[in-house]
Amino acid sequence: MASDREDFTLCGPSHLTNLDWTNENHQRCVAACLVQGIYIVERDRQLQRQGSQALASPWWDFFHFKLIRHLIDDADFSIFGAIYELKPPQEDTTTITTLDSKAPRYVIAFRGTLTKPDSISRDLELDIHIIRNGLHRTSRFEIAMQAVRSMASSSSVGASNLWLTGHSMGAAMALLAGKTLAKTGVYIKSFLFNPPFVSPPIERISNERVRSGLRIAGSLVTAGLAFSRTLKQAQQPQQLQERNLSEDPLKALSLWLPDIHVNPGDHLCCEYIGFFEHRGNMEQLGYGAGIVERMAMQHSLGGLLMDAMGVSNAVDVQEPVHVIPSAKLVVNRTASEDYKEAHGIHQWWRDDQDLVSNIYLFK
Length: 363
Known about the structure:
Strand order of the largest sheet: 1-2-3-4-5-6-7-8
Structural class: alpha/beta
Strand content: 5-15%
Order of helices and strands: HHHEEHEHHEHEHHEHHHEHE
Largest sheet: 8 strands, mixed
């Protein structure tokens, strides 16, 4: 039996009858609904809902999108993403082209974990890869990356006409794909909903001084282990001297500004709130604290600890997926009844939420 949350007519943003592509709230709602469409199209497949029984298409039809390609996992054959094309009504084509230049021509969307028998095994496997900082080595990400790179490099599409969006695990996939292209100077507008931040949820600790102390300690330990590893890898003192230690690979990403949407009640993503605040605090401390934090950002603490203990390849040492130097952070301050509501995709198209946004730029 279908859930009411799968039915667009019951829980979709039907209030968006006059879509304004220059309105950031409208953009967010559309992106979230297109992600929801992926969840529902996979449920339609699993439950063999076809024709009038299928529930997915209203989630994109309402905004005049057409689903032109499914992205299918090569292990369990589940639908984990899709490519949408904007197909406005014929009479609106000229208006949208000339006035609503912020409308995407195409959107690539990725769903998160589906806790259903037909997909949970593979999805949990991918979740573990995220924890181990190894999402980039999975075949699902390779399929996603190939689709993103192909669309972004196409002469008929291009990065300026493309959006990326995803929820939870799908947000991690969109983030990693966006980061990969940003490092080459290609920047895609992205909407990331509840992306996992692989770290203890320090933000949930009520005492601000304790939170700050734990984050500073974490940065010092991570930076120390990273520097120690760098020293060990240098075969000769001359090689270390030749390294440009002032070179900051994060600067290559600093011009990309994805929209990251988080909820303080969601322990999987809430640490983004403290992450950006802590980075600013470290810069203000002086005495080299900013340099320490930059080095810490470029390495996985879990991976460094495993490497220090001689356990190789357990967790990737390099830059975690969740680390992003610049972002527009949107925080939903509306009280959530439970974790499920705080982590849900549905909150991001509702018009009764208390959203606070801040832009963090890497300096």
